[in-house]
Each structure stands twice: as C-alpha cells, then as structure tokens.
Amino acid sequence: MSESSHSNTLAGWREWVQLPDVGVPWIKAKLDTGAQTSSLHAYGVEAFDRDGHAWVRFAIHPWQRSDADAVIVECPVLDVRRVRSSSGHVEERFVVLMRLTLIGREVDAEVTLSNRDSMGFRMLIGREALSRGFLVDSSRSFVGDRAPRPMRRRNRGRT
C-alpha cells in the first residue's frame, strides 16, 4: 500500500481527487465526514465473472455536466452492501477497492458505485478514507491542486 506516513493533512470540504489506477486524472469530490464509505458516480454498471470471481464493469464521467473524458473501468467486486443514502433511500451497491490521490497522498478506499447524477459531486470521500490522516476544514475548498478544464479524448478502458 502506498499510503503516506504523513499525518493530519489539511483538506477542504471539496477537493480535486485523482484515480490513477483507472485512468481518471481528476474528479471533483465532496469530503463528507458524515458518510462512512466513499461513493463514485458510475453508470452502465454490469456485473460479470472473471476466473470464478465477481467483477464489475462501469463507466465514469469525471466532469460534472459533461461526457468529456469518459472512462470504462473493470474492477473486482469487494462486496455488495445495502447503503442508505442521505435522502433515506436504501439500495444495494457494488463496493470496489480503489486507490485515490487526495492532496498528494495516495490511499486505498472502499468505494460504492451509485448514480450521483442528481448530486453536486461525482465522488464523495467518506470518513473511512479520511481517517487515514486527513483533517477536513469545512471553511476551506480546494486546498490541494486544481484540475484543468475538461479536454475531450478517446475513451480508454483500464483493467
């Protein structure tokens, strides 16, 4: 695991995050200490079997209100969980393990796949990932790097 030994990295309530293992250079995320698990906007979610193990294929549109830079991802399924949304709705979601980079630090996070189209952020980082040495200052935003504007490119699948 490549988690940094730094502790108490300051983060704002919203930050730009990278998902390097699946080819997503930037995605805007809300840091939510009220949510246990992180969540990612995924569409076209399809479960399949690979060598006797459960996998899931899905697509990510990393930019809000844009289909630029869409990425097709395949990951092993870590779990399927019943998750209660902030509106109280309960649904079963696939859980995958993803490496994310937040303010220059890489951490592995359990991430549920859900439709976040109506939400203001494509990704939510929950307290399970934040407990690895991040302090969230709710009065600050984008303490880390800012993402560039979306650029159109061809879809790249990563396995």
Automatic annotation (TrEMBL):
Pfam families: Zn_protease (PF05618). Residues 11-146 form the Retropepsin-like aspartic endopeptidase domain. This is Retropepsin-like aspartic endopeptidase domain-containing protein. It comes from Protaetiibacter larvae.
